[in-house]
Amino acid sequence: MSMDINAQKRASAERAFAEIEDGSILGMGTGSTVDMLIEKLVGQSRIRIEGAVSSSERSTQRLREAGIEVLDLNSVGELDLYIDGADECDPMGRLIKGGGAALTREKIVASASRRFLCIIDDSKEVSQLGAFPLPIEVIPMARSLVGRAIVKLGGHPAWRQGVISDNGNWIIDVHGLDLADPDRIESAINQIPGVVANGLFTQRRADVVITSGRWREPSAG
Ligand code: 5RP
Q1: Residue 14, domain CATH
Q2: Closest ligand 1 atom to the C-alpha of 32?
Q3: Which of 102, 137, 184, 213 is the most exposed, fewest CB within 10 Å of its CB?
Q4: How far does the centroid of ligand 1 lie from the alpha carbon of residue 99, in Å?
């Protein structure tokens, strides 16, 4: 019998839980799949979590409710393990993230971690990135400037109105970008003044992808 989407997410969260070692300081992503992992940490006795560096106010609140200490990245240095979901994942473990507007802190914590476990459901696996609109966090005064630069790159920007990131910025979702070479586009977007971060994770991609509980090491490239 096939699993529904929540069962797929839960299977991935549970497989990731098995990877957490006693006494760890974890990097924690954001989203419904990560929420399931945090739920799993409550009331279990296999491991003691030393603390977590959070990628969002949403995850911070859930971690605190779970009794896990939330630590400042500046005081912990490099992390062993970062666990997070994604909106799309290609065969090389390159990702689109930011559906929950947490992309900037997610990218920071992922980059500060030796190992990145990405936990997803079947719908997130794609052969090429780009059907999911690419989120970009922008400084509010630069929204139009960034939008015009995105049009020159071939994309169609849409302002996610009413959403303010945890950093006080705005989110643009870019439709229709050609992401055949996502590494190049990640770098190109980072060059636009006013861009804080974009949701392409190609330079810091996933080291392991767990899809509906199935473990996969991305292909090289
Ligand atoms: C938040 C993200 C999430 O990881 C992404 O949106 C996946 O979320 P979910 O686990 O709810 O499917 O990038 O900014």
Answers
A1: 3.40.50.1360
A2: 11
A3: 184
A4: 6
**Total structural domains within the chain:** 2
Per-residue model confidence as pLDDT tens digits over 161-181: 999 999 999 999 999 999 999
Token pair recorded at residue 198:
């974009």
The model's pLDDT over 90-102, given as tens digits with 9 standing for 90+, comes to 999 999 999 999 9
**Whether residues 95 and 142 fall in one domain:** no
- 106 flagged as catalytic: yes
Query: Could you list the residue range(s) of the whole structural domain that residue 75 is in?
Result: 5-125+203-216
Which residues, including other chains, have CB under 8 Å from residue 30's CB and lie 6 or more apart?
55, 56, 58, 59, 84, 85, 100, 102, 105, 106
State the catalytic residue, choosing from 14, 57, 88, 106. Answer: 106
215 C-alpha to ligand 1 centroid (Å): 19
Residue 162 in tokens: 């009413």
**Confidence band of 2 (pLDDT split at 50, 70, 90):** confident
